[in-house]
Amino acid sequence: MTGVRVMVVDDHPMWREGVARDLTEAGHLVVATSGEGRQAVRVAAAARPDVVVLDLQLPDISGVEVIQGLRAALPRVRVLMLSASGEQQGVLDAVKAGATGYLLKSAAPAEFLDAVRRTAAGEPVFTPGLAGLVLGEYRRLAADPPAGGSGDDGPGAAPRLTDRETEVLRLVAKGLSYKQIAGRLGLSHRTVQNHVQNTLGKLQLHNRVELTRYAIERGLDD
After folding, report:
1. pTM of the model
2. Which of 81, 107, 160, 211 is the most exposed place for a label (fewest CB within 10 A)?
3. CATH 3.90.1150.10 corresponds to the domain 156-217
């Protein structure tokens, strides 16, 4: 894919500049950087990045609050958390707020750059071990939903998916990548992407993380 429009949000100037340099050298366009959460939300609305690389800990507001602000201003933006902390609650809070992926700062540069590319394509990307944590939490929530329901309009309100869309959704819920799904079903990578995008549109969801939770709540990950 062509270069991704990226914004980097981190309160450590040397780290922020290093990440921006790596992205630029890899052919991506760094449209903005910021060291504060509130400023990041304001700047992102004008810079319109495809992906925001975001630290969880910022000096003014939390990374979770930044995600919420970004999603309100730019509903289609993808957020990749890049944090030194892999603390369970922080990871879950970020994903529930709308982060597409969560990578630890100990990741190798090549792993980070691959994560940015995959995040831009809408794929959830997690440091090894964190994906299982997120899926486990979604299964727990599906088994014990909060009072008031899961936010659906009621029984039978879900839009009808085609057999192929349901098949793709089932594999998404199992944690397979687009490439793996394409290989499993004998489809092209682009076709799988199209099925996922169509399903997101029908279900009025924003990303694969929300799609995975939807599928798990309906037992499609079995």
Report:
1. 0.67
2. 160
3. no
